């Protein structure tokens, strides 16, 4: 039966070029290159979540990320059309994005409107342009996209009896359209043909699993079973053309050459079908090839591990890595922000604290000089690194927790020690059992005395303390209280009480200075779920608890010192006149308190929220749909207390929001105002930073007329350059009078505002 697939454009919007979005920053990895495309003078490369392009004439490199409007899901294929000046970006969920020559982005979602097609079969594998149409090879068939109108047309189900089969690549040759398929061999149908959406038009030429199909230099080429074929299609004879050591991952024509790529070999052929270039490895690099193209006499090679390399075909020794700076991977598991550095780790565990399959990833550090990385080989081959923390008294000493191999100590970016089960350390890290030597360290936190605390999952002595000063360990047994359990990131209060989220036992509060006193806050104490993912202590000494089904707050954690039970309560808000529970049924992954005592709340599936100190108001709700967040699954949040920049680590990349709630300063000696002057084309707010908490700010014109007044919460306030929020003030110099709450400290600053005509 003939079936027609409706591809509907649900979202159609042009997003402005991202350099104007000054509130957001992007921190993507460009290492795992999914595809490359080219024009006469540019190469375009895509990782899973972002893109970059290099102009080979000027060497200018431009990144294109969610901050620029590239709302990728997981990028799987890209294609540049010089004729139409557009780059098509295909994704694993069928999403098609269009990047214009000025790098503005047209978001366009093509969704299969048939329930019989599972989401996993919408992946875009390849994009082939022919006479104004893009033939998009997907895991269900071929979709046709008109490059002139930017509209979808027919969809071809070309499997036997109209089955949905995975098409790896399509091409048009000698009156036929050919499709290389995984399940049903090399298939073809006459072309042009208005009935290609009728499966009966398609027949099988050769059986087997075919991964490539290309028209080049008047011939047809296809790949199957380790062989690049140049078959006799009139007589259906599959003549072999060249043999490769592994599966073909990319076959293309690029600026007059045919480029064939497998994971460990690249061959280049000229139009006389003579192999003119072969590469089996990049000197000095251990990488896996994913794709390759040619621009301006250079071959550009996409790799899985280290982005894109450029090599002149006439000089194999002149290797250049053109990959933009970034973290090792886009999916970041955990962060730690220090005054000068941002640390990132990528390993970790599943939602059920399972570290398998083990992940052997490195560690990254972002500083004023850019990104640096510590490879896993240097980290004693430790697996599934789940947490990282710098010593607050010396940020050059850093500790990383492996959820399989113990604790790693790093000094001046060099790993110097690993603490695991062998040799056994008195009171040190413990394996799960004598038969299972997995040492699962997590939840790193320093107390005010400089001791490092951590959890040792599934061990009897599950709480550990390491004192870096004397290299001594202490161990605390909580097995009788909660049994064997797993733990998320702890928080330590000013009384040295440890508040530890658990997988099955709610929140464990523990203080060794009170005769190892512990209190457990579970469902009977009004938690919505005993699986707690995070805790945070705010500036009012309240404990915020994030569970997999909601939020609770303990009003005063000081009560731990004198009481034996603690009760958590929901925050009730009014929404449309009805009483609602804040974060009802949400899976909360992280809670961070900013300098104004607002709470940043990360979730699994609903993005990030910023709520007021009491939780009664939502200031922001950032999602993938309304912001540059690359995913609604937030793994971790960190705040730069000096600048207010908020970092969101997600499963698809990291971005930052340049917030305003900085930590309060101790005095007014470092107050600064920016921008200053405020120029006509500036459309943001004036930041007055470096304030003490609850400082009074009055702004007047040069004649002393008051135009704005406020009180700071934290270290920064904003002024929208309006007179009490009504009208924009005129060109001129404005005085900013600042005084502390008790009036003992004062400061006067000036700001120049310049309006256009």
From TrEMBL:
Indicate the segments forming the PorZ N-terminal beta-propeller domain, all copies.
Answer: 43-203
InterPro entries per UniProt: PorZ_N (IPR048954), Reg_prop (IPR011110), Secre_tail (IPR026444), WD40/YVTN_repeat-like_dom_sf (IPR015943)
Presence of the UniProt keyword Membrane in the record: no
Record keywords: Signal
Instruction: Give the protein name, as stated in the record.
Output: ABC transporter substrate-binding protein
Q: Record the organism.
A: Flavobacterium album
């Amino acid at each position: 039966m003939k079936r027609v697939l409706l591809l509907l454009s649900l979202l159609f919007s042009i997003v402005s070029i991202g350099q104007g979005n000054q509130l957001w920053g992007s921190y993507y990895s460009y290492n795992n290159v999914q595809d490359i495309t080219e024009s006469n003078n540019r190469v375009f490369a895509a990782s899973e979540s972002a893109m970059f392009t290099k102009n080979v004439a000027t060497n200018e490199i431009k990144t294109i990320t969610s901050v620029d409007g590239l709302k990728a899901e997981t990028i799987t294929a890209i294609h540049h059309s010089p004729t139409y000046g557009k780059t098509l970006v295909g994704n694993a969920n069928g999403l098609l994005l269009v990047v214009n020559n000025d790098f503005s982005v047209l978001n366009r979602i093509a969704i299969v409107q048939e329930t019989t097609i599972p989401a996993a079969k919408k992946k875009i594998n390849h994009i082939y342009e022919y006479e104004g149409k893009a033939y998009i090879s997907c895991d269900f068939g071929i979709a046709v996209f008109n490059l002139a109108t930017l509209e979808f047309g027919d969809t071809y189900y070309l499997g036997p009896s109209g089955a949905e089969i995975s098409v790896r690549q399509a091409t048009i040759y000698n009156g036929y359209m050919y499709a290389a398929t995984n399940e049903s061999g090399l298939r073809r149908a006459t072309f042009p043909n208005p009935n290609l959406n009728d499966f009966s038009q398609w027949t099988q030429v050769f059986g087997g699993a075919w991964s490539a199909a290309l028209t080049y230099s008047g011939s047809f080429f296809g790949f199957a079973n380790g062989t690049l074929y140049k078959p006799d299609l009139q007589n259906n004879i599959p003549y072999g053309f060249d043999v490769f050591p592994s599966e073909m991952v990319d076959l293309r024509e690029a600026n007059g050459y045919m480029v064939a790529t497998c994971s460990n070999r690249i061959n280049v052929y000229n139009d006389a079908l003579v192999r003119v270039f072969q590469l089996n490895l990049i000197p000095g690099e251990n990488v896996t090839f994913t794709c390759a193209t040619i621009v301006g006499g250079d071959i550009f090679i996409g790799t899985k591990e280290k982005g894109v390399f450029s090599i002149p075909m006439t000089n194999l020794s002149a290797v250049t890595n053109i990959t933009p700076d970034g973290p090792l991977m886009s999916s970041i598991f955990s962060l730690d922000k220090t005054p000068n550095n941002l640390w990132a780790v990528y390993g970790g565990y599943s939602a059920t604290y399972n570290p398998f399959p083990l992940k052997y990833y490195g560690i990254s550090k972002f500083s004023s000089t850019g990104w640096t990385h510590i490879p896993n080989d240097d980290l004693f081959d430790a697996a599934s690194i789940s947490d990282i923390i710098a010593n607050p008294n010396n940020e050059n000493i850093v500790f990383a927790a492996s959820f399989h191999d113990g604790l790693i100590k790093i000094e001046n970016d060099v790993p110097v020690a690993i603490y695991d089960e062998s040799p056994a350390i008195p009171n040190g890290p413990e394996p799960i059992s004598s038969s299972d030597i997995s040492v699962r360290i997590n939840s790193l936190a320093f107390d005010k005395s400089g001791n490092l605390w951590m959890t040792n999952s599934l061990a009897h002595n599950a709480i550990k303390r390491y004192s870096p000063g004397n290299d001594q360990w202490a161990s605390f047994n909580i097995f009788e209280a909660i049994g064997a359990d797993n733990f998320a990131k702890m928080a330590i209060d000013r009384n040295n009480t440890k508040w530890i989220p658990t997988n099955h036992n709610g929140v464990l509060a523990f203080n060794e200075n009170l005769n190892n006193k512990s209190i457990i806050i579970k469902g009977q104490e009004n938690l919505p779920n005993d699986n707690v993912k995070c805790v945070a202590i705010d500036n009012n000494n309240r404990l915020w608890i994030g569970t997999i089904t909601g939020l609770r707050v303990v009003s005063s954690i000081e009560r731990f010192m004198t009481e034996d039970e603690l009760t958590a309560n929901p925050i009730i808000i009014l929404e449309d006149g009805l009483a609602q529970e804040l974060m009802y049924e949400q899976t909360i992954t992280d809670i961070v308190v900013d300098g104004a005592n607002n709470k940043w709340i990360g979730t699994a599936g609903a993005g990030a929220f910023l709520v007021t100190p009491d939780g009664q108001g939502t200031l922001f709700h950032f999602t993938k749909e309304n912001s540059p967040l690359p995913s609604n699954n937030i793994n971790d949040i960190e705040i730069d207390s000096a600048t207010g920049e908020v970092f969101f680590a997600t499963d698809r990349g990291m971005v930052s929001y340049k917030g305003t709630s900085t930590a309060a300063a101790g005095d007014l000696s470092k107050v600064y105002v920016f921008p200053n002057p405020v120029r006509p084309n500036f459309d943001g707010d004036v930041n007055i930073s470096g304030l003490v908490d609850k400082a009074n700010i009055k702004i007047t014109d040069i004649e002393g007329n008051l135009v704005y007044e406020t009180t700071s919460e934290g270290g920064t306030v904003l002024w929208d350059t309006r007179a009490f929020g009504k009208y924009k003030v005129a060109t001129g110099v404005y005085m900013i009078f600042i005084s502390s709450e008790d009036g003992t400290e004062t400061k006067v600053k000036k700001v120049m505002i310049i309006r256009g005509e």
